[in-house]
Amino acid sequence: MTAISSDFPSAPALPKWIAPVLLLAFAYGVVPLIGSSYLFEAILLPFLALSLAGVGLNILTGYAGQVSLGSAAFMAAGAFAAYNFNLRVEGLPLIGSIVLAGLAAAAIGIVFGLPSLRLRGFYLAVSTLAAQFFVQWALTKFSWFSNDSASGVIDAPRLSIAGFALDGAIGRYLFALTIVAILTFLAHRLVSSQTGRNFIAIRDNETAARIIGIPVLKTKLLAFAISSFIIGVAGVIWAFAYLRTVEPAGFDLDRSFQILFIIIIGGLASMRGAFFGAALIVVFPLALSRLGGFLLGDLFDSGVLDMSQRIVLGALIILFLILEPDGLVALWDRVRRRLLFAWQST
Amino acid sequence: MIADFDYQFFLEVLTGGLLSGVMYSLVAIGFVLIYKTSGVLNFAQGAMLLFAALTFVSLVERGVPFALALVVTFAIMVAMGVAIERTVLRPLTNKPPITLFMATLGLSYIIEGAAQLIWGTQVHGLDLGIEDVPLEIGGVLISQFDIFAAVVAAAMVLLLSLFFRYTRIGLSFRAVADDQFAALAVGLRLPLIWATVWAAAGLVALVAGLLWGARLGVQFSLSLVVLKALPVLVLGGFDSILGAIVGGLLIGASEKLAEVYIGDYFGGGIESWFAYVVALVFLLIRPSGLFGQKLVERI
Predict the structure, then answer these.
(1) Does any CB of chain A come closer than 8 Å to the CB of residue B279?
(2) Which of A209, A249, A311, B14 has a CB 3.0–4.6 Å from the CB of A214, allowing a cystine?
(3) What is the mean pLDDT of residues B229-246?
């Protein structure tokens, strides 16, 4: 990345924290005032949940180099754990059940991360599928998890913090935004710490990392635990704030792939990447259905939409891998530098 | 418990399991072919299988004779293999294997979408003209169709091994699988070989697609058999055809036995993940599978 930047003058020396802080100020101060409920329900809430899941997977896959195909399982684990803590522990505040849910997801993550101690590459990727199938099976099979509900679909509890109800679209949006902001900030701090550098060392060369004294086994399990914690909390947001129901069916293999696609398209090993990727993944089907309806009219029914969505998504993945392996983030940085350059030379 | 152990029933379950294992091997072999020669774990194998079966069925339903439909479908699979090599693999040469894997993940989305966009999403029945009447062999009931599938699989494996052993292009396959750079240095044309191997994988997908399609009906869920093949691959090693066969048999048998004998303790339906657990436990003992090449780590 740094090699490319030599062509252009570097961006003016604004402190790095300016952009995220401005963005957050906008998200808190302006968006709730101007957004429609469609914007919150259909775009921003799934966007926030998937971004957070992307951040979690990026820690594991982007930074620590362990490919996981079971992210949706950890989302499901988080969502169901939060539901059950909320239901079964009297007087536990919502935040408490969310933290405990994250910890439960982390524990499951450690269990399914154990194979990573001996396996790598494809063998590991395939073994993470075990998590996907096992968790989904367990949640459907044992009705205890869904409080013996006949349909397996359960209503999420109402969101409220310190007696303050967050039921409306804006309330749930602010709730999700706050959690995502805090966790992303912590994740950002983590990857720039010694632990984060250990993750990267293991990704780049495991044997070399071992030789310079990094505790490889412990670090790998830590990556699994932290990543699963974040993905688990993302699952809570997905179920509690976005869908407002908790069901295993939404956390299937396709969801796992979707999260993987988010970090490939957005950019591996980048916090911003997860947000870029999630934005694209959420907005693109909506845009495609509008565009298809506009161009083809009635021919473009939901079946055609579904299939063309798959095709375009698949093509996007391949295009990004070939043309822009560092993802939307790299694209964005390059465009920004060009614009700055053009602006400065006028 | 042991006293009233029904030996006959046990044998029946075991044979059923072994034979369904053959069906898993059939899918797994397609993976092995590509992995061996290009180091790509082709997740799109399931989608190719669906595409082949769907194309074949749709042609037959439109009145194309059986044999012609088979030839046309095979030609389409070959064209698809060449196209994939051109548009996806070639630009990604020398990228890390995991990148290539993700590309095939994208590829599987494209192929699945295209197959159903072209031929529709309804379920098609596929009749290969084999009656599924149980045969009694030595007091054990065996499905006739399963035996047919096993014979086809055996024939295909035999054909493939003869091809690898005695033809020139088979020899170059083995050279490429052994050492890509050395193969390149002695003048083998890698793109041609990769295109051929994708075409061969297309053939395997066609055969597997027809057998699985006759079994389950040709529909979207057919592409999910890839998820059955993955534990087989992990167990047998990604680069061994023998491993794919033995792995398939082991997974098939243990899955059925587990479902029948210990499934009740778990509330049933354990087939979706049991194969993975078997493969995982096994891997913890032998990290590169039964017959996989041992990786030598270098810095």
Answers:
(1) yes
(2) A209
(3) 86
Distance, CA of B249 to CA of A213 (rounded, Å): 43
* pLDDT at site A100: 94
CA atoms within 13 A on the CB side of A261: 28
Burial status of residue B10 (CB atoms within 10 A of its CB: 0-12, 13-18, 19 or more):
middle
> Which residues on chain A are in Cβ contact (under 8 Å) with B276?
126-127, 129-130, 133-134
Arithmetic mean of pLDDT, B159-167: 85
CB-based contact A314 B108, cutoff 8 Å: yes
Distance CA A161, CA A94 (A): 7
Q: Which of A173, A185, A235 is nearest to A27 (CA)?
A: A173
Q: Encoding tokens for residue A147?
A: 């409080």
Question: For residues B185 and B207, what is the distance between their CA atoms, to the nearest angstrom?
Answer: 35
Residues of B within 8 A of A126 (CB-CB) are 230-231, 233-234, 276, 279
Using alpha carbons, select from B180, B286, B198 the residue that is nearest to residue B237.
B286
Question: How far apart, in Å, are the Cα atoms of A255 and each of A84, A203, A252, A314, B247?
Answer: 22, 24, 5, 14, 29
Residue B290 pLDDT exceeds 80: no
Q: Tell me, what amino acid is at A87?
A: L
Least Cα separation, residue B68 to chain A (angstroms): 28
Per-residue 3-state assignment (H helix, E strand, C coil) for A151-163: CCCEECCCCEECC
SS3 B137: strand
The span from the CA of A234 to the CA of A46, in Å, is: 10
Helix pair angle (A121-141, A71-88), 10° resolution? 30
Residue A127: list chain B partners with CB under 8 A.
234, 276, 279-280, 283
pLDDT at residue B4 in the model = 63
Q: What residues form DSSP beta bridges with B218?
A: B124
Q: Where are the domains of chain A?
A: 4-345
Residue B188 and residue B176 in contact, taking contact as beta carbons nearer than 8 Å:
yes
Looking at residue A35, what DSSP letter applies?
-
Which pLDDT score is estimated for B166?
87
Residues B218 and B191: their CA atoms lie apart, in Å, by 32
DSSP, residue by residue, A131-144? HHHHHHHHHHH-TT
Tokens at B23, concatenated: 């069906």
B14 token code pair: 């075991």
Q: In CATH, what class is A4-345?
A: mainly alpha
Any idea where the domains of chain B sit in the sequence?
A: 7-22+36-225
Question: Can you tell me the ipTM of this complex?
Answer: 0.84
Specify the DSSP element, H or E, that contains B141: strand B140-143
What would the mean pLDDT of A188-204 be, rounded to a whole number?
93
Q: Which of residues 97-136 of B touch A (CB under 8 A)?
A: 97-99, 101-103, 105-114, 116-117, 121
CA distance A159 to chain B (A): 34
pLDDT number for residue B289: 67
A235: pLDDT confidence band, cut at 50, 70 and 90?
very high
d(CA B174, CA B36): 8
Distance of CA B99 to the CA centre of its chain: 22
- The nearest CA of chain A is from the CA of B21 a distance in Å of 19
CB neighbours of residue B266 within 10 Å: 16
Strand pairing report for A160-161 and B134-137? unpaired
What's the CA dihedral at A235, B112, B128, B229 to 10 degrees?
-50
Q: Counting runs of H as helices and runs of E as strands, what totals does chain A give?
A: 15, 4
Out of B114, B276, B287, closest to residue A311 by CB: B114
